[in-house]
Structure formats: C-alpha cells, structure tokens
Amino acid sequence: MDLDHLYQDVILDHYKHPEHKGLSLEKDVQVHHVNPSCGDEITLNLSIKDGVITNLTWDGIGCSISMASASMMSGLFFGKDVTEANVALESFMSLMHSKGTQKGDEAVLEDAIAFAGVSKYPARIKCALLGWMAYKDAAVQAQSR
Ligand code: ZN
C-alpha cells in the first residue's frame, strides 16, 4: 500500500503544528481513546456550556493521520454549537465510511476533507476517526451531567 499520496500538505501541516494540543486545566469531561490497530492514543478534555463547546483540548501520540485529524477536529469544533459540531461529526463519519466515493463537504468539514482519500484504506480509517470518536464520547458524557 502506497501511503505517500495520503500525506497531503494540509495533513502534514496539522501534524507539525497541531491546534489545541496540550490539555487544559479546565474541563467538564476527560476521555482517553486508543486505536490498538495502529497504536494511536488520545486524551481529550471537553467543556460544554449552554450548548456551546467552550473548551476542547487534547494530547496524544500516534501516526500523522490520527494526530492531524484530531487537530482539525478540535480547530473545527472549538467555540461551535454542539448541534453544529454534530452535523460536522456525522458528515466526517459518512465521508470516512464512503470507501473513496465521497469528496466531503468543505463548507461543513473545512480542512478535514483532506482525509477523503484515507477512506479507501480500511486500516487507516480508525486513525482518522480517533479524535472525532473521542469527542463524540466526551460530548455524550458532558451533556448527560
Ligand atoms: Zn494511526
């Protein structure tokens, strides 16, 4: 499998300069997710106030796809309404399960459409979804408090 073409500039850029990386002291919920098939790990802190994501920080180790995807997710969701974030989350999950048939909605996903090509590689999909699934888990917990 040739992964070279998956490593688009925008992905490498987020990998080298991740957004919202480094855990905040303030948090409502903290979750830790792992992707055993690749060895990626992420810890995510989330605060939701009046339906708005007021804090979303993370830290982790793993491949460039998992780390860049977590960076894009946090950049996209930070400060957003939970309902808006859910729309983007559904859109990204649909894209990652599209087996390369979708290009992604840039208006909703912004930089994260860079992962469209990753959906053709089942082994990498969990890498790309790791941060987003961690957010989903944390959001459910934060909203049930
Ligand atoms: Zn990975």
Topology:
Layout: H1 9-16, E1 29-35, E2 40-49, E3 52-61, H2 64-77, H3 82-96, H4 106-109, H5 122-143
Antiparallel strand pairs: 1-2, 2-3
Helix pairs in contact: 1-2, 2-5, 3-5
This protein binds zinc ion (ZN).
The site of zinc ion (ZN) has 8 residues, from helix 2.
How many domains, in number, for the residues? 1
The 3D shape can be described as: globular
Backbone CA Rg: 14 Å
CATH fold description: Sufe protein. Chain: A
Total number of beta strands: 3
**Name of the CATH class:** Alpha Beta
| Contiguous runs where pLDDT drops below 50 for at least 5 residues | none
State the helix count: 5
The distinct bound ligands, ions and cofactors come out as:
zinc ion
Q: Supply the CATH architecture.
A: Alpha-Beta Complex
Q: Largest sheet at a glance?
A: 3 strands, antiparallel
Q: Strand sequence of the main sheet, in spatial order?
A: 1-2-3
Residues in helix, %: 40-55%
Question: What fraction strand?
Answer: 15-25%
H/E topology pattern: HEEEHHHH
Let me know the average pLDDT: 94
Structural class, judged by helices and strands?
Answer: alpha+beta
